[in-house]
Structures are given as C-alpha cells and as structure tokens.
Amino acid sequence: MSIPEKENSVSGTKKKVGFAQAQKKISSFCAYQERCQMEVRNRLEEWGLVPADADTIISKLLEQDFLNEQRFADSFVRGKFGLKKWGKVRIRQELKMRELPNSLIQEALDAIDGADYQETLRFLADRKWKLTREPDAYKKKAKVTRFLVFRGFEPDLIREEIESLANERDI
Q1: Range from 9-13, 69-73, 121-125, 130-134 carrying the lowest mean pLDDT
Q2: Can you give the residue ranges of the RecX third three-helical domain (predicted)?
C-alpha cells in the first residue's frame, strides 16, 4: 500500500455508495433494529449521498414501514428503562437529541408503568445507599442523589426516596 492510499484509509474519508446500493444497505440497517430518521440520514451522509437522494430513500423507507419513529421511541424507552434503568428525564433528553417530536416522546414515556418506575427508583436508591461507604449522612444523601439524577429520575421523586431511606436507616 502506498503512502497516499494509507492516508486515505486512516483519515476516515467518506465511503462512496451508489443510490441503489445505499437503498439496499440502509434497508438492512433499518431491518436489523429500530432506527430514527436522524440515524438513517447520518448514515446516508457518511456514504456520500446528496441530501435529495437521502430524502428520497427516507421517504421510501417510511412508506415501506422500515422506518417508524413511534416504534423507535417505544423500543428505545422499553430498552433504556427496562435494561439500563434510566429515568424519564434522561430518556427524554436522549430522544430529543435524536430529533423526535415531543408528542412521540411523551406517548412513549407514558407507556412506562408508574409502579414499575417507582420500584426501579427504589431498587436503585436502596442499592446505591448500601454500597455508599460514607459516615456523614449529608454526604451520603448527596452521593445517592447525584447518582439518581445522573440516571435521569425526577428530583422530587429522588428527594422523597432519599428521605424515606434515611428515615428507615435512622440517620
């Protein structure tokens, strides 16, 4: 491999893909797992497609139901809440970063069962409380609170849960 060829392969130049090949590859990309329009558009840009061609492909994917943002939002919420134990605040932020409409985001978040949500918050708070080795009660509460805020739970729910844990543990 000559030096100019090496530089091109290392620098990460865009892979040029033709329209027909891009359409076939992006269909497989969408069939593998749920995607949002932004992810598909970014992938098509990486392949060097012009925006007009990308729009054409995206409209065909929408028509054929390969691309469905409601399904994506529902799947994303189920996965992040169920597996990663994220709260609604963090999930909402992630979906907004993917440029989904607020109505779809809210509808997907409403599908989370309130009892499951509270139970997950309780589980995480209790586990973090037990694992936190801090003799000072104020610092311990702060550490657990920061952890739960990072996970994306609402501050008022966190406050209630921390107070409940502190009272149970007689701190």
Answers
A1: 9-13
A2: 116-160
DSSP single-letter state for residue 15: P
Rounded CA separation 19/57 (Å):
9
Provide the residue ranges of all domains of the chain, joining segments of one domain with +. 3-63, 70-110, 114-168
CB 22 within 8 A of CB 42: no
- The CATH number, out of the four listed (1.10.10, 1.10.101, 3.90.320, 3.40.50), of the domain defined by the range 70-110: 1.10.10
Residue-wise pLDDT for 80-93, tens only, equals 999 999 999 999 99
| Residue 24 φ then ψ, to 5° | -70, -45
pLDDT value at residue 54: 93
Give dist(CA 25, CA 44) in Å, integer: 10
**Exposed (0-12), middle (13-18) or buried (19+): which is 59, by Cβ within 10 Å?**
exposed
pLDDT, average across residues 102-112: 96
Residue labelled with tokens 């107070």: 163
Q: What is d(CA 161, CA 108) in angstroms, rounded to the nearest whole number? A: 25
Inter-residue contact 122 to 161 (CB < 8 Å)? yes
Closest CA to 145 of 90, 115, 153: 153
